[in-house]
Amino acid sequence: MAADIPIIDAHIHLYPSSELDTLSWCTPENPLAKQRSVEDYKAASAGVQPAPPQGFIFVETDRKHDLAAGVKDGSGWKDPLAEVAWLRRIVTGEPRDGEGHTKDDAKLCAAYIPWAPLPSGPEAMERYIEKVKEVAGDSWEKVRGFRYLLQFQPDRTMLTDEFIESLKLLGRKGLVFEVGVDQHRRGRGQLEELLEMIDRAHEGVPAEEKVVFIINHMCKPDLEVYNTHTSTSFIAWRVSMFALSKASRTYMKLSGGFSEMPDSLKQRSAEEIFDALTPWLTVLLTAFGAERLMFASDWPVCTVGVGEEGALEKWKKIVERLCWMASFDEEQQRRIWGGTAVEAYGIAS
Predict the structure, then answer these.
(1) Contact 74, 124 (CB under 8 A)
(2) Alpha-carbon distance 2 to 328, whole Å?
(3) What's the pTM?
(4) Closest Cα to residue 135, out of 165, 158, 101, 112?
(5) Mind listing the pLDDT tens digit for each residue in 106-148?
(6) pLDDT per residue over 226-263, tens digit each?
(7) Nearest to 188 by CA among 162, 148, 155, 225
(8) In whole angstroms, what is the distance from residue 260 CA to residue 280 CA?
(9) Helix H or strand E encompassing 280
């Protein structure tokens, strides 16, 4: 990788210790149950060669929420809006004591993606987006879209009329939808729903108003599969990747791999892990190409089972090896390491 190719890490999570109790998944025994700050991220990425990422994209951390209370009086949106306030402090360089960032760190956040109540429908979404604008203040221009994490939700959550109309609203506003699904644990059904969701959200919509979908973590495939030639899980995932790639305005993140592989593989070298993941990475490369793939670390989730030190650099080496295997030229490498993210999120140059 050339030294002058800048890296934008397209998927990280941050949260202050003062707000751990607002995280829906946070229990005392969870290895991620401690503050994760910009300072921590900088330390974790300091060893990345030839240079650490020049910027990152923050993705919401699944704060506690209540959809019904949100629709009624906005009270169910309190914790997600507190997250927006936290990102505002980072982006505007106005830290509170102990939060682990400085005024100089403000430039690192290229964009951020808050939570949003898409199942509540477009009217509630309009009100919520206005609330986000109010809380975000001067950082609003960094809000490039929203996520409602689908991987844990009941079947067909993403296929209700309310959800589809919320997606169309995002498209009209030029905001992306960040897609988090999980083929490993939810099976092919969730991928089939994702394909239907995208088709319905784009149906009859002018090209310039179609919502952009940015898909997280390769759709979380089962990376414990040994024989990809006979695995029904792998075959279903592969078919879905090619089907997704045919949808317009759809991008894929090269991220989240460590969470889906066996613990024994996590401890191996980047080269050995790449060899094990080659069937999946080859499919993504063929389906999406450099123009619609982007590097993302999923820090700090990528450290679980891998180690606090070196996890981000290890994942970067895996993606770097993919670029080498594909014989990407410099322009294609620039797409993977930041150009695709800049385009997909509409980040100002």
Answers:
(1) no
(2) 12
(3) 0.97
(4) 112
(5) 999 999 999 999 999 999 999 999 999 999 999 999 999 999 9
(6) 999 999 999 999 999 999 999 999 999 999 999 999 99
(7) 155
(8) 12
(9) helix 270-288
